[in-house]
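ok so I'm stuck.
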Amino acid sequence: MLVGLTGGIASGKSTLARMLAELGAQVVDADALAREVLEPGTPGLAAVVDRFGTGVLDAAGSLDRAALAGVVFSDEAARRDLEGIVHPAVGARFAAVVAAAATGTVLVHDVPLLVENGLAPRYDLVVVADAPADVRLERAVARGLSREQAAARIAAQASDADRRAVADVLVDTDVDVVTTRDAVAELWRTHVLPLVADRGR
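replied:
not stuck anymore, here's the structure
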């Protein structure tokens, strides 16, 4: 079965992914796939350079993610162009992972832009990591972004209301880790396992 896991920047999504993995899920990180499709020598990186210029490369010829982020998070058209390059390639990689998964595997697709790209219908279950925007902003700043960078990334993503609208399960991550772990265990027991059982019939 396919579980879509999403949430805004610094929402605690990665924490939920780790907890689901501990319960037996296979987690596929969309950001990791996005890095793979933009490695040196890939068609993806060539397309990015063609669109944005060599200023998004570092001295070694690899993608300078900070430079690219500085362009796309302040320019909606540029962001859309980047998504048009990256998302099809990531989708193809993910499809290959799904095809290779053993029967009965719970695949959790950790994907930040699930809502923005209208991906919710692809999943058997959509889980949203939920924390207030002000909390997420402070977490992002604590991770090294400037307040302006964090605010720009939050503004560029779907609204909390839009994410909640597609959620089958909303997990409050503005709580302590024990409470979060309990919520994930409950999600696994009441939503994931019944769906797996239904598919096995």
